[in-house]
Specification:
Length: 375
């Protein structure tokens, strides 16, 4: 990691290495990242962010590139569709996009996912640079090379691994992000604290009263990205880690219940909120099975509620969130191998492990805790 006053450069090693730049006004790095032989750039941006993305398009035009600007409509999660990907492919075709040209994505995780997928599939793979505009996009979706779209059968079922050529995280872009989206992104940041970097938890705890200052937010983003980099570089294709470490599966901490909550609420619950509830659940499972001490389990609730994330589930009238439904969904979660339920748990702070098929009574008791039905 190289830290300068206005920006930090985090290196991602592996077969196709790249840098993640975090800081203020870092978009000026785009031309250098594009490289010398590029003529055409496709700017695929979240359709709701015309105003925010316009300076990027203008700077590219000023730089002498042929720019094809493609607003992704509908914006947000709904853009992760075959129809939107197809529209992008058609626009690349019209622009005569070749293998030496570059896709730039500009938006949240939905945009980096669908834009990354378009780049992964056009001519079997052209270079892509991600400019994430949400906290979740910065600390999670833009780094690691997973791309994808949704189908009628579920989320992220079609996709590809395609490493970006670079990632630019301009923290100024977060200024317009709705508070609830920022808080949701903090769910993944806190997750990184529990699975690998407890300093993240200390930073969050230390700034609880006055809110997150700009330098603290920057450090949190850098630290969370570093956690993700360390995990994905060790396990690029999700084959599993060595030395008993769960490998990339560790990023799934809190996610098994989170996915069930998201599905059960027809995706009305934000991802980071669902992950917060999932972490409270899995901390309780770990505590009840003797993996985790009381204090570290309780710290989950304290840290998460401290940043404004939910730690108790209040199902709405239409939600399918009974224990029976949730357990059934968890068993078919894509991280469950065969019929076995696999949960990432902590053996202690920053000591992740896999718990296979825990006792159903334990799961029920932990779920009751998330529902606030017992203490
Ligand atoms: N590939 C991966 O490894 C990975 C990891 C985590 C999540 N994801 C994916 O990321 C997606 C979620 O990402 P997200 O939470 O960023 O959601 P998102 O991309 O849908 O953005 C959330 C909302 O914020 C708006 N928005 C984005 N940036 C803004 C800004 N700067 N100012 C104002 N509004 C802004 C968007 O229009 C949208 O309405 C999911 O589809 C998930 O599957 C992928
Ligand atoms: Zn997540």
């Amino acid at each position: 990691m190289v830290r300068m006053s206005d920006r930090t450069r985090l290196h991602v090693g592996g077969a196709s290495p790249y840098d993640v730049v975090v800081g203020h006004h870092v978009l000026d790095e785009l031309p250098a990242l594009l490289g010398p032989d590029v003529r055409r750039v496709a700017l695929l941006h979240d359709g709701g962010l015309d105003g925010l993305s316009a300076p990027v398009g203008a700077a590219l035009l000023d730089g002498g590139y042929e720019v094809t600007t493609v607003p992704l409509v509908p914006a947000g999660e709904a853009s992760k569709s075959y129809a939107v990907a197809e529209h992008c492919w058609e626009r690349l075709g019209e622009a005569g996009f070749t293998r030496s040209d570059v896709v730039v994505t500009f938006g949240g995780g939905a945009t980096t996912d669908v834009g990354g997928f378009v780049a992964a599939t056009w001519l079997r793979g052209v270079r892509v640079i991600h400019v994430p505009t949400t906290l979740l996009g910065m600390v999670d979706a833009a780094v690691g090379g997973k791309t994808g779209i949704n189908t009628g059968a579920g989320k992220n079922l079609v996709g590809s691994f395609h490493e970006p050529a670079g990632v630019l995280c301009d923290l100024d872009l977060l200024d317009s992000l709705p508070r609830a989206e920022l808080v949701s992104g903090l769910g993944e940041v806190v997750k990184c604290g529990f699975i690998a970097d407890p300093e993240i938890l200390a930073l969050v705890e230390g700034s609880r009263a006055q809110g997150l200052s700009s330098p603290v937010l920057r450090e949190l983003v850098e630290r969370a990205i570093q956690v993700k980099i360390d995990v994905v570089v060790g396990d690029l294709r999700e084959s599993g880690g060595s030395d008993g470490h769960p490998g990339r599966e560790v990023l799934n901490y809190g996610h098994t219940l989170a996915h069930a909550i998201e599905r059960g609420s027809d995706y009305r619950t934000r991802h980071g909120e669902a992950v917060a509830l999932g972490m409270v659940f899995v901390a309780e499972v770990a505590r009840l099975t003797g993996h985790l001490d009381d204090e570290t389990a309780a710290r989950h609730t304290a840290v998460l509620s401290g940043v404004g994330l939910p730690t108790q589930l209040t199902p709405g009238p239409d939600d399918r969130l009974s224990f029976v439904d949730v357990l059934a969904t968890m068993r078919v979660d894509k991280k469950a191998r065969g019929a076995q339920l696999r949960l990432v748990v902590l053996d202690g702070l920053a000591r992740p492990a896999i718990l296979t098929d825990p006792d159903e009574q334990v799961l029920r008791a932990a779920y009751d805790q998330v529902l606030g039905a017992s203490s």
